[in-house]
Each structure stands twice: as structure tokens, then as C-alpha cells.
Design a protein that fits this description.
By secondary structure, the chain is an all-alpha fold. Helix content is 69%, strand content 0%. It has 17 helices and no strands. Helix 8 packs antiparallel against helix 9 and helix 14 runs antiparallel to helix 15. It starts with 25 loop residues before the first helix and ends in an 8-residue tail after the last helix. 33% of the residues are buried.
Amino acid sequence: MGGTRTAGQGAAGDPFGEEPPSGGTLTDQVLTGAAETVDAVDVSVEAAADARNSAAVSATPRGPADPVKLLIHRHRRLCERAVDPLEIAAGLEAHGITDRTAARFLHRDVFSLAEELYARVPRPADAAPALRDSPWPPETPGAPAGGLGRAGWTALSLLPGVICVLAFAGLRRTSGQSELAIALAGAFALSGALSSCLRRGPLRAAGRTVPAVGLWVYWLLAYLLCGDGLLAGLVGGGPDGPWAATLTPLAALAFAVVPAAWCAHLFSVHARRRLTGSRGLADFAAGARPVLLTTVALYACALSGLALLANGVYGDPGPPAPTVVLGILLFLARLLTVHGFPDPAATGLAAACAVEALASASVLAGRLPGCEALAAPVRDAVAAWGAGAVPTLACGAAALGLLTYGAVVLARASAHT
């Protein structure tokens, strides 16, 4: 019958006509057997890999049991030349070693690792003992140089302001060729005095400057003195003759060298104290950033007072904002240069120069047929805030960029050794 199953007849769908065992279908048995075979192969492969690794380990000569010895061998020169453990910690950070990396060497942070390296690596016997006892390491930014103490570089920082005042007094009492001679003599004397201030004291940056920086600084100063008059003449359809110029901002910036030197000195001292008391790179970075912001704010307040005083003494009604913003930009650029970052400083100065040049060029380009829209942003800014808005915005944006960058790089230990 159709519903009766004979012994020789397989189940429906069974091509072999055999009864499957009670453990499951034949397909399940095949899959189970294949899985067992794969597992056996995996075990064999793992055993072979372990055998190869064991052979490689036994064939390779073992390194030192102390993991710090490899680090000593790699950074021996740094450890031998270091005056204190802080220099080693800064050097290790500059090579990319962080607190997490120090944990692999069984240390809680880079500072404790640096202390062990300093204790275990002998320094040359001819190293000067007085140098080790000095609070200023050989390359510490802001350390007195050339035999000048605080009184020496403070007096030197006053020299640009004194020269500027004497030159202004001479210009007010002369005219014609004598006035031109005094202006040239004052410009050369002021340039020499500024160069002396930048070669000694806290503002020195021997071997770290970019050659083009001088050109950018002179451009910014020239635009501060003459650029507003030129831009106002261009916007008004001129210039139809010599444009107005003012020397008052130069006096404020010349005297601002003193607070700049002292603020740079205070930043170096407090940052190094913070470095001495920190127990980790993150701890130092968290403490160094407020020091930087406080230093910049202190310098901005001092420069604002000098700008207002200069305007009152010389009767200049111009706003002090362009002078203050340019002074902050120059201070930040010099601070970055002193601590080993001259290229970003030069980039910030060049960017400000480019914006000022493009502002004047856009007004001239707007006179071409069909190009009136190019001059619209500058014309609107001058109409709303005056010609001084262009240098204020240009230098302000560059200063903000340098401050943001400085908050990152000047919060590293390697920037203070």
C-alpha cells in the first residue's frame, strides 16, 4: 500500500534507501565530522606556530632583564648631557615617550623614568659643578646671557623707548633736511637698540630665528605708522598726495619692550617651577596653559596703558587698538621663537602682512570695470570702524592663531629646556 514502508525502501528524500541512525540525519553526521576535522587542523597549525615561536625565542639571544637598559642605550647622549632629570623628561617627551609609554618601563610617568635614567647614567667627569647647581640650565629660555643680570637687561630694554623719545623731540624742533637726518638717525639707532634687546636677556633666541621675520616685522610697523592714511586715501578715491602718518604707536611699542622682556622672563620662571613640581606631562600641561594666558593678559594690560599714555602725551586721538593688537602679535611670535618654534611665529607674522597687503590691493582692484565687489568688504569695514579696523583684524586673527598654537606647544616640557 502507498502508506506502507518496506525494508528495502528508504525514507522520503533518502537517495540511498537507508535508515539514518537515531543520532540525526546523514547530513548532520557529515557536517559534524567536517567540523571535527577542521578543529584538528587548527590545533595542528597552532601547535606548529608555537613550535616555531619557541624555536625562534631559543635561537635569539635574550636581551637584558631590565627594560630600562634599552632606553638608556637609545638615549645615552641625552642622559649624559642633561643637567637635571627635567631635561631628560623633556627630551623623552620630544621623542614621543608619554606617561603611558613610561608605564611599560614600570614607571608611573615620564618624570620618574627620567629620574632613574639620570641616576643610572654617569655624566662626564669634566662637567662644571657650578653649572649643575645653577637654577638656569645652559639652554633654558630667559636665562641671563652675556653677563647681564635682571638689572642689566631691564636697562637695555629701556633703551629703545629713550631713543624714540629723543628722536621725537628732535623732529619737533627741526624741519627740512635736518628733520630727515634726525629721522634716519633715530630709525637706525632704534633698530640697533631693538637688535641688542633681542640678542640678550629673556627675549634672546640665538640660532632659532627665521631670516624673513625681520621683513615681516618692518612691514607691520610701517603699516601701523602709514597704512591707515594710505587706506583711507584709497577708499576715498586717492591718494591725491602724501597721506597722513603718525609716530605715536612707535613710542608705545618701543617702551613696551620692557614689559615684554619681563613677561617672557616670568613665563619661563613660572613654567620651569611648574615643571619641577609636576608629576606627569598632563599635569604640567594643565598648569602651563594658565601661566601662558596670564602672561599674555599681563602684557596686553601693560601695552594698553603705554598706548593710552603715548596718545595723551603726543596728542594723538587715534584708537590704541591697532597698536595693542600688533604688540601682542609680536610678543607671541617672539615667545614662540625663544622657546624653539620660529617657523609658526614667522607664519603668523606673514599672514598678518598678507591680509594688510590684500586689503589695499582689493581697493585698487575694485576700480577696474566689473570688479567693484572686490573692494566692498574693505570699504564697508572702513566705513563702519575706520581705517584702523584692517590692521586690528589682521593682527588680531594672527595673534589668536599664535595664542592657540602656543597653548599647545608651550605646554610641553620640551619647550622649557
